[in-house]
Backbone:
């Protein structure tokens, strides 16, 4: 709790700016606030809060901010809270645009993407400023606050969601679990992202905008497509996707600095809502992108392939290390899509789920029934492990006696796998290699004692086509008489 309070920063240094009540249809009232921040301010209070008193009857608030970016040495994020606790997951949180916008409108009947419309209660609001970067000379931030009062229209409701399941029956469903829209730093609406996903051949996507879920105000229905509500929880010590959120202003907080046990409250909050907490791009080289937090037991997944080129080697190493410790984290891949011409669905996942519904997809992710793929359309290879008369697929556990041979078979029917090769990985180390083509499975046997096996399939030119999640192996010492 002390670390959380330190991360939130101090609002006491600000004097409240009172805006006098405005008569009906009065001209907008404007105020300008200025503050200088230093690197020391960033160290002691990564998030700063500017109190602004809003008068009774106000129906529109516009916040604009200006500062010298100093060729990238300064970066300041923007958000807004109404009167109440300075916490996400409560109705006090009105939105977050980070550094993607220089102003935000919040009104009774509309709001800038990333912010929630609705009644504007009188009292002390707070403009949130995230000190992402502060140059040695400091940064001057100018806030322009404009309020007005007029007869508003109705407050928008959450857009209707299509009935689930979108499709019945067990199958390998293709999806992209990391998609952005203009509600954060993407360039298209949720509806356009859904259409693009369907055109790419996907069955589902998770919309994971940074620190908000306001895409739910948009209709994002595309024929047959499942849209999962998510959030990219963008902390100063790494990013994580939370899948399965839903509802009005129910985001997971993100204002947590790295430190022992610091991430645990966020993970607990996600699990309490029945969602999945998944580490994103844990080794990505950008400020605040690499994972610096602990990896407590409540974290169930890690993104090992981010973007169209190839899995990140360090992310796969981290995953294998955790698997070797007995942790069962599901490896996933995604495009981390923001805009065209970047390809949506490269990378992507194939999820073996009982049906195409949010709950079935989340259950399959938890169970590890996933193959990570380099494109959006190719059917996945099928990995099967055998010991005696028992068989197991990805995500399953296979019991193996000491006198039994562990056999593994990889089958791929699609022409994309012609002349490819399979590397079998056991406990994080190569355990064999074999050719693979349609009609010619790759087979391995006597791979030795191991906690888990998984497969990597590469094309003739070495490009990775697919990477399976593990089959877990439970060795039994009993020998048959």
Residues:
């Amino acid at each position: 709790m002390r670390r959380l309070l330190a991360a939130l920063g101090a609002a006491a240094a600000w004097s409240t700016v009172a805006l006098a009540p405005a008569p009906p249809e009065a001209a907008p009232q404007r105020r300008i606030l200025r503050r200088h921040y230093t690197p020391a301010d960033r160290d002691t209070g990564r998030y700063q809060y500017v109190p602004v008193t809003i008068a009774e009857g106000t129906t529109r608030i516009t916040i604009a901010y200006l500062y010298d970016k100093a060729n990238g040495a300064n970066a300041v994020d923007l958000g807004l809270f109404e009167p109440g606790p300075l916490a996400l997951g409560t109705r006090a949180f009105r939105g977050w645009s980070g550094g993607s916008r220089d102003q935000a409108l919040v009104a009774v009947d509309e709001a800038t993407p990333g912010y929630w419309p609705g009644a504007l209660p009188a009292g002390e609001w707070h403009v949130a400023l995230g000190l992402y970067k502060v140059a040695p000379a400091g940064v001057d931030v100018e806030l322009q606050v404009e309020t007005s009062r007029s007869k508003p229209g109705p407050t928008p409701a959450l857009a209707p969601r299509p009935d689930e399941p979108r499709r019945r029956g067990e199958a390998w469903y293709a999806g992209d679990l990391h998609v952005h829209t203009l509600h954060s730093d993407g360039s298209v609406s949720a509806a356009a992202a859904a259409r693009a996903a369907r055109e790419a051949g996907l069955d589902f996507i998770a919309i994971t905008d940074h620190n908000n879920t306001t895409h739910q105000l948009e209709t994002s229905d595309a024929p047959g497509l499942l849209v999962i509500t998510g959030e990219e929880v963008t902390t100063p010590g790494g990013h994580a996707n939370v899948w399965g959120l839903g509802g009005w202003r129910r985001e997971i907080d993100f204002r947590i600095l790295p430190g022992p046990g610091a991430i645990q409250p966020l993970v607990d909050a996600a699990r309490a809502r029945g969602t999945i907490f998944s580490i994103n791009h844990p080794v990505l080289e950008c400020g605040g992108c690499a994972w610096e937090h602990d990896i407590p037991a409540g974290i169930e997944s890690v993104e090992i392939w981010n973007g169209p080129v190839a899995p990140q080697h360090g992310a796969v190493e981290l995953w294998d290390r955790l698997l070797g410790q007995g942790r069962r984290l599901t490896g996933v891949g995604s495009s981390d899509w923001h805009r065209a011409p970047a390809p949506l669905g490269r990378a992507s996942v194939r999820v073996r789920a009982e049906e195409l519904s949010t709950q079935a997809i989340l259950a399959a992710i938890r169970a590890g029934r996933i193959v990570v793929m380099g494109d959006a359309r190719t059917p996945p290879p099928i990995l099967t492990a055998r010991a005696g008369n028992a068989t197991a697929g990805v995500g399953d556990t296979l019991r193996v006696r000491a006198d039994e041979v562990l056999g593994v078979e990889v089958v791929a029917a699609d022409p994309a796998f012609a002349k490819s090769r399979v590397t079998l990985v056991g406990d994080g180390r190569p355990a064999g290699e074999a050719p693979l083509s349609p009609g010619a499975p790759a087979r391995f046997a006597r791979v030795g004692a191991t906690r888990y096996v998984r497969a990597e399939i590469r094309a003739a030119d070495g490009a990775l086509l697919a990477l399976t999640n593990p089959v877990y192996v439970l060795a039994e010492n009993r020998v048959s008489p």
Summary: Residues 167-377 form a domain with the TIM Barrel fold (CATH 3.20.20.140). The chain has three domains: 2-148, 167-377, 383-476.
